[in-house]
């Protein structure tokens, strides 16, 4: 039983972990901040405004030592949601465990370490696909040999559903991803063939569970069936225990609503039942989002409520005491069979394209398309969401307080982290750091396993940015696909009439402007949650606008430069990491310095108080998840552009 947590600083997160463990949490699920996830030190230009916002900043051995102070790692099961820098965080974890005097072989936990998913949905990659896969497989091979209780790879279908995947896509793309890693491990040759079953047995999954209860139960049963088939037929694993589909789950966050947020409590509970009722396909670990995650960072009480939901189910009900409740169900058997057949066909298609790594562009485009269809169903009312497009009126939520019912990270946390990093650099042995980095660079240029050199870097005092920087020098930089380039215009289906009316209004704006309306959709900072930006870009193109969208991870200066060079009429910024107050005003100020006076609009998880501050800084409009009708939203944006041009 876990809650996914971490924020502000290593010390603050350590206090949170101790408190949650005292409340009955049975494992740790560590959230790292975006600079740590993408391999930057806290003082890097791209880290501005992002430090400690969506997780704990870890730049060195000192930070991880503080994070687990007083928590014996050889008696803890720790899940680390980390991918591009998974090897580095595991190296730090091993080094801290050694300092505690722990038997490293006794360490238990998980590194997510799923890089393909980052290209498809989450955006926290650091290196190109091929060297990234090498890092993944090196971690797998090293842990199987040295950390037998560790799950080195957590194939993460969770974010695929968050990006709009259908159950069939979630099944097929996640399984294709797992196949890509296992094939790469086998090709690397670091694990003897007779031990390969142990590699298969250590692969785990991190799955999503949505609100369509029967479909989600069937999806998990389909996962079990397909994984058993793949491990038996493709990899020749004969031991049923090593073929077991082992998964943890966080239930769906995409469906949580800003409107009437108390409704999310019922959604979370129903979704948790979807991964616990079927004994043959039951989650091994569950972490639940908080009811207010569509509003911002949850407070300790909010996390406690999610933990108590699990405890009530486990200790008060009889739901876990019986054989599988769905065995023999004709409805369930039919639903599972349909998902298995469709997912196998899509999986075969991905494999025919060369596998998951080679099919990243295809899978990304398919996810963007599916998410667009989901949004259109909600806008048209075909997919009903209580409190959003049906029963929208209601009483104010008593769960919301004066601060918006969320945890507000102290702005001083970033400055404190920068001072901590500077002090660490000042007291470490620079000669030892240089030697460790030189060895890392040497090994990276060979085919040897990089884990030993990374652990040596951790012990020597290397920082996150330094470790990643050396590998970036050797492996190169990379920008992932956006998934929006090849998308065709839509007729709109049930929204056809609304789209046609909106197109006429956009054309009227263009007549006033004297040319096509051009919008820049930007993702400043390190926030890789690009789903919203992609859908805005697609819908803007549907409405006839010219769209400039270059993907994620841009500095405010780069966005300003692009806006000026492309001569856009409006700039739309999407941020879900909480760094909006830092980054958005920088874009506004930069455009003013360049004399390019166009409206800037911001979208994301932005509390009302922050929205007021953004408007005071010159932002023309602020949109949040409650503004789900993209067509009307973009017409409003077009009118803002016309009004500004007329001044």
Keywords:
single chain; 647 residues; alpha/beta; 5-stranded parallel sheet; 50% helix
Helix percentage range:
40-55%
C-alpha end-to-end distance: 57 Å
For the largest beta sheet, what order do the strands appear in spatially?
Answer: 1-2-3-4-5
Number of strands: 14
Structural class, by secondary structure, is alpha/beta
Evaluate the radius of gyration: 24 Å
Number of helices: 24
Biggest sheet statistics:
5 strands, parallel
| General form | globular
Overall residue-averaged pLDDT value: 94
* Poorly predicted sequence stretches spanning 5 or more consecutive residues: none
Content of β-strand: 5-15%
What would your notes on this structure say?
Helix 6 (129-146) crosses helix 8, helix 10 (213-233) crosses helix 13 and helix 16 runs antiparallel to helix 17. The protein starts with a strand and ends with a helix. The model has no long low-confidence stretch (mean pLDDT 94). By secondary structure, it is of the alpha/beta class. Strand 10 (518-522), helix 20 and strand 11 form a beta-alpha-beta unit. It has 24 helices and 14 strands.
């Amino acid at each position: 039983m876990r809650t996914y947590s971490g924020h502000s600083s290593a010390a603050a997160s350590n206090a949170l972990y101790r408190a949650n463990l005292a409340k009955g949490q049975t494992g740790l699920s560590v959230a790292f901040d975006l600079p740590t996830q993408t391999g930057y030190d806290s003082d890097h230009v791209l880290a501005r405004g992002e430090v400690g916002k969506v997780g704990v900043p870890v730049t060195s051995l000192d930070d991880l030592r503080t994070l687990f102070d007083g928590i014996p790692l050889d008696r803890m099961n720790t899940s680390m949601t980390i991918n591009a820098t998974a090897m580095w965080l595991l190296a730090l974890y091993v080094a801290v465990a050694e300092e505690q005097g722990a038997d490293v072989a006794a360490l238990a936990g998980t590194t997510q370490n799923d890089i393909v998913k980052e290209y498809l949905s989450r955006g926290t990659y650091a290196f190109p696909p091929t060297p990234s896969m090498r890092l993944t497989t090196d971690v797998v091979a090293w842990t199987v040999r040295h950390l037998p209780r560790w799950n080195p790879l957590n194939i993460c279908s969770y974010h695929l559903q968050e990006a709009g995947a259908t159950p069939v896509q979630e099944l097929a793309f996640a399984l294709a991803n797992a196949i890509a890693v296992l094939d790469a491990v086998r090709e690397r040759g670091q694990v003897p063939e007779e031990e390969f079953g142990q590699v298969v047995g250590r692969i785990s999954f991190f799955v999503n569970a949505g609100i369509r209860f029967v479909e989600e139960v069937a999806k998990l049963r389909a996962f079990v069936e397909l994984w058993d088939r793949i491990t038996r037929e493709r990899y020749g694993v004969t031991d049923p225990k090593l073929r077991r589909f082992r998964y943890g789950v966080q239930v769906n966050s995409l469906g949580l609503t800003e409107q009437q947020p108390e409704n999310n409590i019922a959604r979370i509970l129903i979704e948790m039942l979807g991964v616990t009722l079927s004994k043959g396909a039951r989650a091994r670990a569950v972490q639940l989002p908080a009811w207010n995650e569509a509003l911002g960072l949850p407070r300790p009480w909010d996390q406690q409520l999610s933990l108590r939901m699990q405890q009530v189910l486990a200790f008060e009900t009889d739901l876990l005491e019986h054989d599988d409740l769905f065995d023999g169900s004709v409805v369930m058997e039919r639903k599972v069979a349909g998902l298995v057949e469709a997912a196998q066909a899509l999986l075969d298609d991905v494999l025919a394209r060369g596998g998951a790594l080679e099919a990243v562009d295809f899978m990304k485009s398919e996810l963007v398309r599916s998410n667009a269809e989901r949004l259109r169903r909600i806008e048209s009312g075909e997919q009903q969401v209580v409190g959003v497009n049906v029963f929208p009126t209601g009483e104010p939520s008593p769960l919301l307080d004066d601060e918006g019912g969320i945890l507000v990270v102290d702005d001083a946390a970033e400055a404190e982290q920068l001072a901590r990093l500077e002090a660490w650099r000042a007291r470490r042995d620079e000669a030892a750091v240089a030697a460790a980095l030189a060895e890392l660079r040497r090994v990276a240029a060979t085919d040897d396993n990089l884990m030993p050199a990374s652990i040596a870097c951790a012990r020597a005092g290397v920082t996150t940015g330094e470790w990643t920087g050396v590998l970036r020098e050797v492996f190169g930089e990379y920008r992932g696909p956006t998934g929006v380039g090849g998308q065709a215009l839509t007729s709109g289906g049930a929204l056809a009439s609304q789209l046609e009316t909106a197109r006429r209004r956009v054309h009227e704006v263009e007549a006033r402007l004297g040319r096509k309306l051009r919008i820049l959709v930007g993702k400043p900072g390190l926030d890789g949650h690009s789903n919203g930006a992609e859908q805005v870009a697609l819908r803007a193109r549907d409405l006839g606008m010219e769209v400039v969208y270059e993907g994620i991870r841009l500095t405010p200066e780069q966005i300003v430069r692009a806006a000026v060079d492309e001569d856009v009429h409006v700039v739309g910024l999407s941020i879900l990491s909480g760094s909006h107050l830092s980054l958005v005003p920088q874009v506004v100020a930069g455009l003013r310095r360049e004399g390019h006076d166009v409206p800037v609009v911001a979208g994301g998880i932005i509390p009302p108080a922050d929205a007021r501050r953004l408007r005071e800084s010159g932002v023309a409009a602020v949109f949040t998840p409650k503004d789900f009708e993209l067509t009307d939203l973009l017409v409003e944006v077009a009118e803002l552009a016309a009004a500004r041009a007329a001044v």
